[in-house]
Amino acid sequence: GAVVSQHPSRVICKSGTSVKIECRSLDFQATTMFWYRQFPKQSLMLMATSNEGSKATYEQGVEKDKFLINHASLTLSTLTVTSAHPEDSSFYICSGERIGETQYFGPGTRLLVL
Amino acid sequence: AQSVTQLDSHVSVSEGTPVLLRCNYSSSYSPSLFWYVQHPNKGLQLLLKYTSAATLVKGINGFEAEFKKSETSFHLTKPSAHMSDAAEYFCVVSDRDTGRRALTFGSGTRLQVQP
């Protein structure tokens, strides 16, 4: 149990376009979802925390207007990278958390902006 | 503020020999500590977690870790390495008392297992 999926697994887009990444908890209800990014050979850095039905809380230095997060249901959160640029190329990972339990991570989405 | 330091960016062992991945943490409150493994092109998998129960925590695939408050350490060990253990390992901390459930990741240790 406790499986989290992400779609797409990898995406290539042109600079200036927007990209949406979906994160789904398949067999549990995630009251909170987290979005991380991971640059090559580096650790995961938390971008934002989202609770179902409320606005996301962004970490310092993360532009909320660039990285739009929607958590419309207990099983789905989306991250939209707006007007993507090459420096946004990264590995984006989401996690879902049941109340009081461990976070379960998705397999990640590799974004390449040309 | 909480932080995690993984003392080795890269560890290489021979198959069948013991594994030791070192982790030191800093936390203002009672921490929860985790070890996650990341295989290439796969998601993060939880190996084990410490949340104030027994200080010696047993995880999956023969891994275990010992919480030592006096040393602020949470080293990961395995008696005998297997080729399939080759991966990136992350030590992670979460401050339970602050109610902040976001995880802080260490920089990672790449484990290489030689045949």
Task: Describe this protein with a few key phrases.
heterodimer; A: 114 residues; mainly beta; seven-stranded mixed beta sheet; four-stranded antiparallel beta sheet; globular; B: 115 residues
Overview of this protein structure:
The complex is a heterodimer of chains A (114) and B (115). Chain A is mostly beta strands and 114 residues long. Chain A has no helices and 11 strands. In chain A, a hairpin with a 2-residue loop joins β7 (67-73) and β8. By secondary structure, chain B is mainly β. Chain B is built from no helices and 12 strands. Chain B is globular and about 40 Å long. Chain B starts with a strand and ends with a strand. The model of chain B has no long low-confidence stretch (mean pLDDT 90). At the A-B interface, β4, β5, β9 and β10 of A face β6 and β11 of B.
Taking the alpha carbons of the first and last residues of chain A, their distance comes to: 37 Å
Tell me roughly what share of residues is in helical segments of chain A. under 10%
| Broad structural category of chain B | mainly beta
Q: What's the gyration radius of chain B in Å?
A: 14 Å
| Beta-strand fraction estimate of chain B | over 45%
Order of SSEs of chain A: EEEEEEEEEEE
Count of helical regions of chain B: 0
Estimate the global geometry of chain B from the Cα principal axes.
Answer: globular
- Uncertain segments of chain A: none
What is the 3D form of chain A? globular
Oligomer: heterodimer
Mean pLDDT of chain B equals: 90
Supply the helix-strand structural class of chain A. mainly beta
Topology:
The complex is a heterodimer of chains A (114) and B (115).
Chain A: E1 4-7, E2 10-13, E3 19-25, E4 32-38, E5 44-51, E6 57-58, E7 67-73, E8 76-81, E9 90-97, E10 103-105, E11 109-113
Parallel strand pairs in A: 2-11
Antiparallel strand pairs in A: 1-3, 3-8, 4-5, 4-9, 5-6, 7-8, 9-10, 9-11
Chain B: E1 3-6, E2 10-14, E3 19-21, E4 23-26, E5 31-38, E6 44-50, E7 56-58, E8 64-68, E9 73-78, E10 87-95, E11 104-105, E12 109-114
Parallel strand pairs in B: 2-12
Antiparallel strand pairs in B: 1-4, 3-9, 5-6, 5-10, 7-8, 8-9, 10-11, 10-12
